[in-house]
Amino acid sequence: MANRDRNPLQGEMLQGTLDLLILQTLLLGPAHGHTIAHAIERGSEEVLQVEHGSLYPALHRLEDRKWIASFWGTSENNRRARYYRLTPGGRKQLQEQTSHWDRLVRAVNRVLRPQE
Amino acid sequence: MSWSKYFRRKQWDEERAREIEAHLELETADNLARGMAPADARNAACRKMGNAARVREEIYTMNSLGFVEVLWQDLRYAVRVLRKSPGFAAVAVLSLALGIGANTAVFSLVHAVLLRPLPYPDAGRLVRVGRSGDPGSSVCRAELEFWKRRSTTLALAAGSEGRKDQSFSAAGGSEWVHVLAVSTDFFRTLGVAPGEGREFEPAETRPGAPHAIILSEELRRRAFGADSPAIGSAVKLGETAYTVAGVIPRGFWFPEAADVYVPLVTIGGSFDLETNASMMARLKPGVTLVRADAEMAALAPEFRREYPFFGDRYRGLAVTPFHEWLVGGVRLKLLLLFGAVGLLLAIAVSNLASLLLARLEIRQKEIAVRLALGSSAGRLLRQFLVENTLIGVAGSLAGLLGAYLTLDWMVSLIPFRLPASAPVRVDLPVLIFTVTVALGTGLLFSLAPFLTSAGLDVHETLKAAGRSAGAGALRGRVRGFLVVSEVALSVTLLVGAALLARSLYRMHQERLGFEPRGVVTFFTPPARRYREGSDYWRFESAVLAKLQAMPGVRSAAAVSTLPLTSQSNFPVQEQGHPEHSIGGMEIRIVTAAYFETMGIPIRQGRGFGAQDTETSPPAVLVNETVARRWWPGGGWSGSHVLAGWLNGRNLGLMDDDPPRQVVGIAGDTKTVYLKAPPRPTLYLLASQTPWYADGTNWVVRGGAPAGFAGLVRSAIADVEPRQTVGRFRNLEEIVNSTMADSRFDAWLFGSFAALALLVAAIGVYGLLSFSVARRTHEIGTRMALGATRADVLLLVLRQGLVLIGIGLLVGIAGALALTRWLETLLFGVRPADPASFAAVAVLLLAAGALASYIPARRATRVDPMVALRYE
Predict the structure, then answer these.
(1) Does any CB of chain B come closer than 8 Å to the CB of residue A112?
(2) Shortest CA distance from A63: residue in chain B
(3) What is the pTM of this model?
(4) ipTM of the complex in this document
(5) What pairs with residue B574 in β-bridges?
(6) Cβ <8 Å between A57 and B62
(7) Are the beta carbons of A60 and B16 separated by less than 8 Å?
(8) Which of A5, A52, A77, A83 best probes binding to B when mutated, by most B CB atoms within 10 angstroms?
(9) Annotated domain spans of chain B
(10) pLDDT number for residue B270
(11) Are the beta carbons of B319 and B292 closer than 8 angstroms?
(12) What are the structural domains, with CATH classification, of chain A?
C-alpha cells in the first residue's frame, strides 16, 4: 500500500509496537479507543506517550486483519463509544508477537550489555 | 470488511469521525474532571489527539486500493499534461493510430486468408491434384477418371471446371448466374452434404443424360421462395432445360462461390482429353502427402500406356495441400504487405519514443522540482508510464477503430481476388493481435524514457536543467539511435517501392506487339441459334460490314480471344513434320482486318486478304515465336499445319479439319501476361473455321465518339435482333488492368515508403531542432569566439547528415538482405538494382538535408549576446 512507509507512531515507538500494546490491553476485556490509550500510558507508567490520533489507524489495521472486532456500546459515563475486543486470531497473534518481542529485547540487550 | 470496505469508504469515514469525536468528548470530560477550564479541556484533548484529519485520511487510504487511487491521480494528471501540448498529443496518437490501424487491417487479411482454416470438415486431408511439377495445373478428364479409379491413397476425388456466366430462369424470374461444372463426389470430397436433394450421380455425367442441376441455397430462395419445393423443378440455364437435383446449403464456398452447379460431363473417348478440370481429392486417413505422391508417380507409366500420346515426359500427377494451393498466389504478397506495415509501425514507434525523450528533456525542470519536493523516482517513472500508456491506448483505439471502419473499403482496393472463405473482418483473433501489438509497442516506446531516467538526480538535474547533463547526453544518444533506425527502416521501404515502381515502368515500356491506343472492344456472347459455323460467319460478316461503315471507323475485326485476357492450349503440328509439334498453342480465330486493326505487323508473307474465302484453301498465319521454333532458317513457305495433331498423331479433337497452309508470319504479341514472353500463336480465319463459336470479341480502331456503344447495339440489332452485346472497353483499359496488380504493389509500397520518409524526416528535424535549442548557449559562445554563420550551419548539418548517413548505410544493407523477397513481384529489375538504390540514397539525402537545414539555419540566427545571457 502506498502509505505503509508513513510511520503511524510518533517519537520513539517502534513500528508494530503499538499493535502489540493494543492487543495486550484488549486481553483484559473489550475497551474503546480512549480507554486503550490511557491504559497504555498508565501501564507503561507514563513512559510511552501515545498520540491518540495514531491509535485509530492502528485499530483499523488490526480490525482489517481480523485480530480485533468492534461494536458500538455505551461507555461508563453513558456515552456512545466504539468498543474493541480481541478475536481468537488476535489472541494467537498476541502470543506470537509477545514471544517475538521477548526475543528481540533479549537480543538487543545482549548486544548492549555483552558482559552480563 | 474485506471487499466491501473499498465501496463503503464514505460511511467508514463518517463512522471514524464519530468515533474520534467520541474519543475527544471522553478526553475532554476527563480533563474537566481533573479541573481544567472547559475551553482548555477541549484544546488539550485535541492536542492529545493530534491531526484528526490526517488520521481519517490515513484510514481512508487504508480502505482504498492504493494502486488504483494513484493510477487515477496519474491518469488525470496525464490528461492535463497532454492537453497542455495538443500538438505533441495529436502527432503521437495519430502516428501510433496509423501504425496500429495499418497492422490491424493487414492482419485481418492475413488471418482471413492464411490462418483461418478452410470451412470443411477435416480440411487437412483435402489436396489439390495437378500435373507433377505444376501443382495448380488443370488435368484432363481422362486423368481425373484414371486416378480416381486406380488410386489407393485417395478416399475421394473430384473435378470442377469454371463455366461462363449464364442466364438462369425459373418460376421466380431470371437472372445472370455464376456456373461451375462439377464431377460426381464433388461435394462429398469437400465434406459438404446437399441441404436438399442429392449431388450428381455417375449417370448424370454421361453425354445424353437428362440435365440435372444443383442450386445454391441463396439462388433457390430467390427462384422458388423459401417454402415451395425446388427438387424436381424445371429450370433453364441459357437455352437448356435442367431439372433441380439438389440444393447446397448457404455459405458453401469453394475457392469461389457459384450459384449453380452442372454435371462435368465425361464424354468418353477423345473429348476426355480436354485439359481443363481442376482436380481435388481427400486423402484417406493417415496417408501422407509423400505417400500419395509416390503412388501417383508409380501409376504414371500405366497411364502413359493407356494414353500414349502424353509422351514419355509425362510424369503423372502430384498433390498439394488444398489450403496451401489456394493461398499460394497471394501468400507472398500478404506477407510482404504485413512486413511493410510492420516496418511502418516500427518507424512510428521509434518516432514516438524519440518525441517522448525530447519531452522528457523539456520537462527536466518539472521533474527536478517534483523530485526536490519529495516525489520518489519510482512515482515519477510511474507517472510517465501512465502518460505513455494513455497515448498508447488512445492511439491503439483510434487505429483499431480506423481499421474497423475502413476495412471493407481497403479490401475493395485490392485488385486480386482474396481466397478467403469468409469476409475479412476485425474479429476476436484480430483483436487479440491488435491488443498484443499495442501492448508491445507501448512497452517499447515507454522503454526509452525509462532506461534514460534511471539516473535521475535532483541536484544534477536542477543545476543542469536546460543544459547538457549526464542523463541528457544518454538520451541524446538514444534519440540518435532512434533516428538512425527510422532512416534505416524508411530506406528499406523506399528501396522496395523504387524497385516496384521501376518494374511498373518497365512493364509500361514492354513491347506489346500491338497498338492498343484508339481501339475499342466489345463482346457478343455465343448463342444456340447459329446451328452451323457458316451461319455464325454470316452474322459476323454482316456486323463487320456495318461497323466499317460507321463514321470515323478506320478498321474493324473480330477475334476469338483478346490479347492479355485468357489462354488457350491447343495441340498443333506441321504437316509431315511430327517433330514440329506444339502441345499448347494459342489459337486466335480472326477476321481479315484483325492485324491492321490491332496494329500487329506482318513480318513475312501476307496477311489474310480478299482471296481467302469460305471456299478457298484454308490459310493460317503463325507468330514469330512459332517461326523461330519450327523454321529458324526460314523455309516456312508452303508448309501446312494440322490443328488437333501432336507428335504425328491425330488427337481426335477435330475430326475433319483440313491441313491449313501457312501464308505469313505475324509479329509477336503479348499473350496472357505482360511479364511472360509471347506464346506460340496460330491465327485462323473466321470464315474458314466453322467449328468455333464461343462468342466473339470485336475490335474497332477509330470511331469511338460518344454514343458509339448505342450505334453498335442498333447495328447488331439490325443484323440479329436477339443478339446481346456487352463489355464495351478500350483496349488500353485491358492492357492497364493486367498491370493492376503491379500498380497496386507499387502504389502500396510507395505510400508506405512516403509515409516512412516523412516520419523519418520529422524525426531528424525534431532531433536537430531540439539539439540546436539546447546548444543555444554553446553556439552563442562559439560565435562570440569568432565562429562564422557558415561554421555554425555546418556544425548542425554535419550532426544531421552523420545520422542520416549511418541510417542510409544500415538501411541499404537491410534492403539488400530483404528485397530478394520481392523478386517474384519484380519485372525487368533485379532486387539489387543499383539505380533504384542510388535513387533512394539521393532522395533520402535530399530529404535529410532539408530536414537538417531548417534547424541549422535557425542556429545561425542565434545572437551571441542573447545566447550568453540566456538562463
Answers:
(1) no
(2) B1
(3) 0.67
(4) 0.76
(5) B577, B641
(6) yes
(7) yes
(8) A52
(9) 4-64, 66-122+327-465, 133-315, 485-511+734-871, 526-723
(10) 46
(11) yes
(12) 17-112 (1.10.10.10)
